From TrEMBL:
GO molecular function (one): proton-transporting ATP synthase activity, rotational mechanism
Function in brief: F(1)F(0) ATP synthase produces ATP from ADP in the presence of a proton or sodium gradient. F-type ATPases consist of two structural domains, F(1) containing the extramembraneous catalytic core and F(0) containing the membrane proton channel, linked together by a central stalk and a peripheral stalk. During catalysis, ATP synthesis in the catalytic domain of F(1) is coupled via a rotary mechanism of the central stalk subunits to proton translocation. Component of the F(0) channel, it forms part of the peripheral stalk, linking F(1) to F(0).
Family that this chain belongs to: Belongs to the ATPase B chain family.
Key words, A-Z: ATP synthesis, CF(0), Chloroplast, Coiled coil, Hydrogen ion transport, Ion transport, Membrane, Plastid, Thylakoid, Transmembrane, Transmembrane helix, Transport
Residues spanning the membrane: 26-49
Keyword Plastid: yes
GO cellular component term, pick one: proton-transporting ATP synthase complex
InterPro entries associated with the record: ATP_synth_b/b'su_bac/chlpt
Assembly mode: F-type ATPases have 2 components, F(1) - the catalytic core - and F(0) - the membrane proton channel. F(1) has five subunits: alpha(3), beta(3), gamma(1), delta(1), epsilon(1). F(0) has four main subunits: a(1), b(1), b'(1) and c(10-14). The alpha and beta chains form an alternating ring which encloses part of the gamma chain. F(1) is attached to F(0) by a central stalk formed by the gamma and epsilon chains, while a peripheral stalk is formed by the delta, b and b' chains.
Name of the protein: ATP synthase subunit b, chloroplastic
Compartment(s) of residence: Membrane; Plastid, Chloroplast thylakoid membrane
Note: In plastids the F-type ATPase is also known as CF(1)CF(0).
Amino acid sequence: MKNGTDSFLSLGHWPSAGSFGFNTDILATNLINLSVVLGLLIFFGKGVLSDLLDNRKQRILNSIRNSEELREGAIEQLEKARAHLRKVEIEADRFRVDGYSEIERKKRNLIDSTYKTLEELENYKNETIHFEQKKASTQVRQRVFQQALQKALTILKSCLNSELHLRTISANIAILEARKELRD
């Protein structure tokens, strides 16, 4: 670098003012060109760069403000959602408790109605058994009565002869006549 600076300052390398020529020292010409370009950029670009940076700064600040507003809105929505969630959880717990209570109540009602139905069936069974026993008892009595009557008729027929038969008829007629006289 020292050579480049020296070549820039020393007049020995510069051609005389009266003549025109090319400088073949690439490092010296590049440094001169770079320093001129940088000087011009700094001088003329300072305002433009400053405006660009100010605009960029404003956009960044606006983005930050918007982000903060969005963040605050999101926090509000989150708090609302949490409050709603708590409310829904409380409601769900209430429904769950009410549901369990309702299930228990229905279970008790079902058990009670089942016991009631079983009692009714038991009563119906007992009534049916009692009815069937009465019916069987009546049928047995009727058969016994019929058999006894048939046996008695058979005995009477075998024991009765015409004379006994006539005496029985005469006695019954006498009884009927006595009743008739009492009634008149």
